[in-house]
Specification:
Formyl_transf_N_sf, 7 strands, binds glycinamide ribonucleotide, globular, alpha/beta
């Protein structure tokens, strides 16, 4: 790996987590990373606009074999799932073992796995009367939200919260820990490479 790790970001939606990474890199607070490509599962994802505005190469790949092709072509060292709403096939997991991370809007193992994504997570947290929620950065393995946890941070649920107000509060924390988790992964890869 060169001085800056080459990162490919997979998205499906608004891309605020992608934006947080772009901003932190631009501000010199995440110098160890360089985003080489943003790949979206949907052509209408606003995340693509954010990437283009930042001068980052983009691709739309709905099919998983296209995703692997794009990843390989990008030369990425690390893959970040930032609001990516598809499950990656084993072939991709195997090709980037311990180099794919995901941000999830709950305190895994709570409110994760099949059916728990995006606003559904926050709705379930509120319906269950939880007093706190949070966000988790974890490695991606063959399961859904089952990979090893890298970083987790709690966020309070406040009286009167709606799924939307809770989502907004959790998102702020996601933006912080996604960058921190990415730093941690880059540090670990460099340490492993140094040891070889
Ligand atoms: C984020 O809250 C992210 O944690 C969640 O989707 C949102 C995407 O927002 N991801 C999942 O639920 C994955 N299971 P963004 O597009 O603004 O980054």
């Amino acid at each position: 790996m060169e001085d800056s790790a080459k990162v490919a970001v997979l998205v499906s939606g608004g891309g605020t987590n992608l934006q947080a990474l772009i901003d932190k890199i631009r501000e010199g607070r995440l110098e160890e990373a360089k985003i080489v490509k943003v790949i979206s599962s949907r052509p209408d994802a606003f995340a693509l606009e954010r990437a283009r505005k930042a001068g980052i190469d983009t691709a739309v790949a709905a099919e998983q074999d296209e995703v692997l092709k794009e990843l390989k072509a990008s030369g990425a060292d690390i893959v970040v799932l930032a609001g990516y709403m598809k499950v990656l096939p084993p072939e991709i997991i195997e090709s980037y073992r311990n180099r794919i991370i995901n941000i999830h809007p709950s305190l895994i193992p709570k409110y994760c796995g099949k059916g728990f994504y995006g606003m559904r997570v926050h709705r379930a947290v509120i319906e269950a009367g939880e007093k706190e929620s949070g966000a988790t950065v974890h490695y991606v393995d063959e399961g859904v939200d089952t990979g090893k946890i890298i970083l987790q941070r709690r966020v309070p649920v406040i009286e009167g919260d709606t799924p939307e107000t809770l989502a907004a509060r959790v998102l702020e924390t996601e933006h912080e820990i996604l960058a921190e988790g990415l730093k941690e992964v880059i540090k670990n890869i460099k340490k492993d490479e140094g040891g070889k």
